[in-house]
Amino acid sequence: MSSVPPARRLRLGLPRRVFSQVLLMQLAIAAGVAVLATGLFLAPLGDQLDDQAMRRALAIAQTTAQQQRIADDLRSTAPTPDGPVQREAERIRTATGAEYVVVLDERGVRWSHTDPRRIGGLVSTDPGEALAGHEVMEIDEGTLGRSARGKVPLRDDEGEIVGAVSVGIAYDSVRARLIHAIPGLFAYAGGALAVGAFAAWLISRRVQRQTRDLAFSDIAALLAEREAMLHGIREGVVALDRGGRVRLLNDEAQRLLGIGEEAVGRSPDEALGAGRTSDVLAGRVTGTDLLTVRGRRVLVANRMPTDDGGAVATLRDRTEVDRLGRELDSTRGLIDALRAQDHEHANRMHTLLGLLELEMYDDALEFVGEVVGDHRATSEQVTEKIHDPLLAALLVGKATVAAERQVALRISDRTRLPDRLVDPRGLVTVVGNLVDNALDAAAGTPHARVEVELRAEGRTAVLMVRDTGPGVPSDRREVIFAEGWSTKEPPAHRERGIGLSLVRRLAERQGGRASVGEARGGGAEFTVVLPEALTEPGAGPALTGAPAPRTAEEESR
C-alpha cells in the first residue's frame, strides 16, 4: 500500500495556488482555442478547394464547348484515336492541366479520352443531365479515379445539342493542396498558442500579486470569515469605494445609522443627508475618535483609507457612555454643592448653638427663620413659575450648584411654563446643557449671573438662557453647535463638544431651532424654540417624567 498521506495524494491532481491554477486554465483555454480555430479553418477549407476545382473543371468544359469546330467535327468525322476531336481535346487538356477532357455524342460514345483505347466506347457515368442541357459540377469516381468534374452540353451553330463535354481535375491534387496548407496553419496556430501562453503567464502573475499567492480554498475561507466577523462584531463598519460610494454596511452600522441595504451604491450624503456624520464618513472631516450624533445616538467614528482609493470607517456607540458621563458630572457638581452646604450648615449650627448658649433666644429664632426662608424662597420661586416637576427639580439643583460656584442663578419674571409638556425629559436635556454651559461661561466673572426664561406661547415652548460670560463672537455662533467643537478641555472620562449639538438636534427634530446671540449688558443669550412641545389646554397634563417615544432603532436593541 502507498505510504503517501491522503491529503497529499489529493494535491497531486491540481495545484492549490491560484497562480498555478489560473496559468494551467489559461494554457488549456489557449490550446483549446488554437485547436478549435485550426479545426474550424480546416473543415471548410477542403470544401472550398473542392468547389474551386469543380468550378475550374466547369470553366474548362464551357470553353471547350464554345469551340464550334469540335461540334462540326463531331458530326463529320468518326471517333478515332487520331481524329480531329481527340487532337483538340488533348491540346486543351495539356494546356489547362486537366486530368481529362472527354467529348461525347448524344449516345454517350466517347470521341476523346486520355486513353485512346477507350475512344468509341460508352462513358462510365450517366451523361443525361448534360445532354438534357444542364451544366453539372460534382466530385465523382470515373475510369480515371476520383476527380472534380464539370459537364456542359455541346451545341452546333444552330443551338441544337449534339453531345457533351466532360472535364475532370484529379482529386489527389486538391488533397495535396490541402495537406500542403496544413503545416502553415499549424505554424500560425502554434504562434497563437505561444502568444496566448505568454498572456496567460502575465495574467497569472497579476492574479498572484493581487491574491498574495493564496489558494482558492483559502480565499473562500477568508470571505466566509470576513462575512461572519463583519456581521458578528458590535461595532459599525462602513466601506466606501474610490468614488466615495458605500459598498458595504454591516448589521451594526445599519442599526447605528438607521439605514438599510438600499444605502449601498450611494454616497454618504445621499444615504444619510447632509451633516457631520456624512462629512466624517466621506473624509471631509479628518482625525481620530471623531464625535458625531445620528438621531439620538452619540457615535465615535474613525476612518482609514485603503490601497484601492476607498476607505473603511468604524462606528462605536457612545450614547450610554456619554449619558453616564453627564450624570457623573451632575453628580460631582451636586456632591460639591452638598459639601459646601455641609460646611455652611455646620457654621450655621455653630452660630445657632452660640446664640442659644448666650440665651439670645429671639436672635436665634430670627436667624433660623432667615436661613429656612432663603431656601424656601428659592424653591417656591421655581415651582411657582415652572409647574413641571422634572424641570423644577433640575433648576433647584442647578441653583445650588450655581451658588457653590459663586454664580447667581435667577428665574426670569416672564417665566411661565404649565405642566403640559409632551417630552419633559427632552426639555430637561436642553435646559440642563444650556445652564451648564452658562455656568461655565459666567463663573469667575464680576457679578456672575445666569438667567433662565421658560415660557409657553400656545403649544410652543420658548427657552432663553443668558449669562454674564465673555459671549460668543459672531463668526462662531454657528460652529459652536457643531459636533465635537468645544473651547474647554475634555475631562478624562468623556469628550466635550456634544451638549450644544444635542440641543440643536433635539430642537430641529421637533421642527424648532436653536440659536445664540448677544445678551443685553454683555454675555451670551441662547434661544431654543420648540413647536408642539405642549399639549392642548384642557387635554390634561402629560405624564410627569414619561419617557420620550422610542425610535425603531432603540426598540431593536
Automatic annotation (TrEMBL):
GO molecular function, one term: ATP binding
SUPFAM superfamilies assigned: ATPase domain of HSP90 chaperone/DNA topoisomerase II/histidine kinase (SSF55874), PYP-like sensor domain (PAS domain) (SSF55785), Sensory domain-like (SSF103190), Sporulation response regulatory protein Spo0B (SSF55890)
Reactions mediated catalytically: ATP + protein L-histidine = ADP + protein N-phospho-L-histidine
Ranges where the Histidine kinase domain occurs: 423-534
Keyword Lipid metabolism: no
GO terms (BP aspect): regulation of DNA-templated transcription
Biased composition (Low complexity): 535-550
CDD domains (alphabetical): HATPase_DpiB-CitA-like
KW Transmembrane helix (keyword) present: yes
Region feature Disordered, mapped onto this chain: 533-557
Keywords: ATP-binding, Cell membrane, Kinase, Membrane, Nucleotide-binding, Phosphoprotein, Transferase, Transmembrane, Transmembrane helix, Two-component regulatory system
EC class (word): transferase
Record's protein name: histidine kinase
Species this protein is from: Streptomyces toyocaensis
Phylogenetic lineage: Bacteria, Bacillati, Actinomycetota, Actinomycetes, Kitasatosporales
